[in-house]
Amino acid sequence: MKRIGVLTSGGDAPGMNAAIRAVVRQGIALGMEVYGIRRGYEGLLDGDIEELKSHSVGDILQRGGTILRTARSKRFHEEEWIDHAAKMCQTFGIEGVVVIGGEGSFKGGYELSKRGITVMGVPGTIDNDLGYTDFSIGFDTAANTILGLITNIRDTSSSHERTTIIEVMGRHCGDLALYTGLSGGADVILVPEVPVDINEVCRKVLKGQRSGKAHSLILMAEGVDMDSAELAKILEDMTAREARTVVPGYIQRGGSPSEKDRRLASLTAAKAVRLLYDDTPSRAVGVQEGEVVSVDLGEAILMKREFKKSMYELAEVLA
Ligand code: F6P
Predict the structure, then answer these.
(1) Which of 171, 172, 176, 250 has the most ligand 1 atoms within 8 A of CB, as the residue to mutate?
(2) Does pLDDT of 2 surpass 90?
(3) Upper half-sphere CA count for residue 32 (Cβ side, 13 Å)
(4) What is the 8-class DSSP label of residue 48?
(5) Ligand 1 mean position, distance from CA 11 (Å)
(6) pLDDT tens by residue, 210-241
(7) Strands, E, within the chain: which ranges?
């Protein structure tokens, strides 16, 4: 393969720039031409495409966000637009595309691959919701951002002897809440994978109060089937302790990527390029038990993420 494209799609994630850099520099090292596609599939449809040289990706390794910009393309859900995207690739002579993004972006990539364009998926989403890989680029940085917030919130929460609910991102996957709940010492962790039992939540908070805990901390994923403000109200009524809600929102998506995310981005993106160079059919690159792996793209998007039940249970024991 002589000419490849790279795009970032869906929610941005810290480390996407490190992945773009790796695609460009690994591609050039293999004698390929690398084209940057702006605003994800939107830019592909519009032909917003430009060749990237080694210097184009200088000084971006440490930057959050994505220099290629990103978008959630509505048009790309329609057959005729996907056909148009494949034609755009042909017009630009692009034979393979590295798609850096999450579940939705991979599904789009799979559709493109059915039209003769080889697509390599590189996992980039703070939600960590892709089933075939243990970690996605951006998750570690976001988790550390949340951990910093928990540390700050603990000060005020304990001073006022309150219950504080921190609602973190994660529409379908509770990993951000689960990992930071364990590492941040939450009393209760609420994730989309486990139905909310409000009596159980109250029981845990009351148990903490009775055992002398100055305050209670609840880590809740946004995808949980309950409103965090509503939960705070119920807890105030049932536990006789003030409750507050904190929603950090997009703060979780920004910031300089952690070492782990930069490394994951560099390794997976470079691997994706080598697969294209070898003319391998479309795959998704990820990491399993510390090793860089790749799986068939079609299979990757069907793989459901396994919920870490033992981690969830341990967090309950340690709370
Ligand atoms: O990046 C994933 C995610 O952060 C989700 O957790 C969240 O629901 C969504 O993106 C929101 O993104 P946007 O508002 O940019 O579409």
Answers:
(1) 171
(2) yes
(3) 28
(4) -
(5) 5
(6) 999 999 999 999 999 999 999 999 999 999 89
(7) 3-8, 33-37, 49-52, 96-101, 118-123, 163-168, 188-190, 216-221, 243-246, 283-288, 291-296
